[in-house]
Structure formats: C-alpha cells, structure tokens
Amino acid sequence: MQTIRFGIIGCGLMGREFASAAARWLHLTESRARPEIVGVCDTNEALMGWFSTHLPNLKQTTTDFRELLANPDIDAIYCAVPHSLHADFYPQIVAAGKHLLGEKPFGMDAGQNATITKAIADHPGVLVRCSSEMPYFPGAQRVIEFVRSGAVGDILEVESAFLHSSDLNPDKKINWKRIASVNGDYGCMGDLGMHVCHVPLRLGWKPSSVHASLVNRVTDRPDDKGNMVPCDTWDNATITGSVEMPGGTFPLVLKTWRIAPGESNTWSLRVLGMKGSALFTTKSPRQWQYMHYEAGGAQAWQVEDLGYQSLFPAITGGIFEFGFADAIQQMWAAFIDELAGGDARGFPCATPAEAADHHAILNAALASGRTGQVQDVEYSQ
Ligand SMILES: NC(=O)c1ccc[n+]([C@@H]2O[C@H](COP(=O)([O-])OP(=O)(O)OC[C@H]3O[C@@H](n4cnc5c(N)ncnc54)[C@H](O)[C@@H]3O)[C@@H](O)[C@H]2O)c1
C-alpha cells in the first residue's frame, strides 16, 4: 500500500485528532494509501512531546513551519493553526509543492481567502482540501444520497446547523477563537460556517442573498489571570439565505451558535420537500429519519438505525455506533484516497472553491448582521 508522508503544522486540538486517526489506519479495510506522520511543528514546544512519544516514524520536530516545507521527505501537510495565520501559511505550503488539508475557514476573512485561492490556482499540481468532517457521519451521507436521488421533490426549506453550548458559562476563559483579531470578525461563523455550508454547497444550494441575525451576548470573559477582557466575537449567527431552484426559491437556514443551551456539539441537516424529507442530527448519531410522501397519502416519518455503515469500509461491525473520531478518520480517508488517485468514493473533502463560496456567504452575512438589511452574496466564481 502506498504511504503518504505528512507534516503537521499546529499540534493543538485538531493536530492530535489527525495523529490519532492516522495511528489507527488499520481500522479501514479498503484504503488505497496510508498516512505516515514524519514531521510536526508548533511554536509551543511542549505540545510536541506527545507526538514524539506516540509516533514511531516521527523524524522532525520544529517550531518553524518553513523547516517542514523544506523537508523533501514530506509529501503533504495538515495545517491546523489559528485563523489569522491561514493566509500566510497556506500559500507557502502550496508554493513548496506540498499537498494540503487545511483547516477551515481558509483565511480569516474574504480578502485573505482570495489570497489563498489565488495561491492554489497558481499551483495546480498540488491537491488542496478544506477540513469538514461532520458530513461523513453515515446518517449525513444518507440524507445526501436521499437528496441526490431526487426523492425530495420541490424543496420547502433546508436547515444546516452546528450548535455548541460551552459559552453559556460566563466564567469560561477566553481563548483565541473568541478574539476577533485572531479568529476574525466572522466570530462563530468563521469557526462553524464551513461545517454548515459544506453540504448545501456540495448539493448546489448557493444562496443569492442572505439575512443574518448576529448575537454577541457575552462581551467580557476572564483571561488566564482572572482579569475580565473583551470577548469581541459574535456568539451566535442565524443566517437565512434565498436559494433559487427550478421548483421555486427556498430558504436555506444556516445556524452557527456557540451558545445553544444544552447542545455540546450538535451538527444537523434537515431537508424538507414536497415529495420527501430527511433529517440527520449528531444527537442521534446512529440514526437518520426520512419521509416519502404521495398526494393524499400518510405523512409518516421513518427512523432507521444505521450503525457503522461508513463511506470507507472499516473493521467495526455494522451494528456498532459511529462517532466524532470516526468522522475525522473518514474525512482523512477521503483526502488520502484522492491523493492516491481515487475519487473519495463520491464524496471528497470540501474543496477550495466551496471554501471560497462559504466566505462569500459569511461576508454577506456579516454585512447583513451589522446593517439589518438583506445582502446579496457576491460569489467570486
Ligand atoms: N474540523 C474541526 O472540527 C475543527 C475543530 C476545531 C478547530 N478547527 C480548526 O483547526 C484550526 C486550529 O484549531 P485548534 O482547535 O486545533 O486550535 P488550538 O489552539 O488547539 O491549536 C492551534 C495550534 O497552533 C499553534 N500555533 C500557533 N501559531 C503557530 C505558528 N506560528 N506555527 C506553528 N504552530 C502555531 C498553537 O501553539 C496551537 O498549538 C483552526 O483553523 C480551527 O478553525 C477545526
């Protein structure tokens, strides 16, 4: 089996998730290639010890990511650093000829995203994808198949949501994701927007205009020393887009909330149509719900337990549950499959074009939230 040698830039929360997914690659039964992590980089040297301890093939640790890019034994990079660094790092990664799975949002704002998009266009020899793992849950894949099969008919509404709740606690300490100069002015939308836009964009649902309600409920948070400092990012965003389709315009509701009481990490996708409707939520991770309707017939939702019916086959028995770490691994399997010449079994990771479109939506939503007006979405492509 082909081996693809990776370097990780950013050894935080997500850097570790990739290392864990790569370490249990034997979980997958039909992969064309496997990742091997040979180098890691973080400015916080203390974080690299975990990788040195657990990764037997790790040969390079550095605090300067350019040293990873200069390493001829690295084929591809996973970059998981704060948003303010994306527009500096991603162009340098592709210019070095390294394939890239970059973390969302692919730049802190639309201008930075344009810089990244241009750099990718200038280096067509590398494969670049944007991280977004939640659509790899089996139930999400079923909803996507349902839509692609034409079962929905004319669409009434689509709601795509990612709801977090830990910010309900006013005593939660501030971190870079809650500081606009590092996270970006999008706030919660920059953090969660790609997660809610990925599937709608993949299915061709591009809103031509949006209206956004933005909420900043907690304006100060304690820092490490207990001092209250400004928390200047949006907590919650509810965006309603207008999507024009042959069957008529429908509302696309995108919710990115950091303060959704009781929701620790709920990603959901609900499609309502005249012929069929479907729903997946990570609150019921092994199920999906759907309804077929014929004129005058019963309106009866069905619930199916899916278990572990993953896009990329795995050793886990079909009756068992699928979880977040599995979704991460499936996303990685999709990227590695493409790197090895495959088609990601029909569901590649989010593309740079989708990342650019999501910036167009968020940029319009930010303007709408500030003015209260409906805003046209200016797509660059
Ligand atoms: N796909 C997902 O579900 C998901 C979840 C969380 C975060 N993310 C994304 O992942 C990225 C990182 O988020 P995180 O939660 O892992 O953050 P994190 O703060 O846990 O990790 C970021 C790491 O980058 C390091 N870093 C900062 N500056 C650096 C530099 N100049 N060179 C090298 N390393 C540097 C930090 O020391 C830190 O260890 C962000 O883009 C975020 O949006 C994605």
TrEMBL record:
Keyword GTP-binding: no
A single MF term (Gene Ontology): oxidoreductase activity
Domain Gfo/Idh/MocA-like oxidoreductase N-terminal: 4-123
Membrane-crossing segments per the record: none
Enzyme class: oxidoreductase
Positions of the GFO/IDH/MocA-like oxidoreductase domain: 141-278
Presence of the UniProt keyword Oxidoreductase in the record: yes
Coiled coil: none
Enzyme Commission code(s) on record: 1.-.-.-
Keywords recorded for this protein, A-Z: Oxidoreductase
One Pfam family linked to the record: GFO_IDH_MocA_C3
PANTHER family from the UniProt entry: BCDNA.GH03377
UniProt-recorded name of the protein: Putative oxidoreductase YvaA
Organism, scientific name: Roseibium album
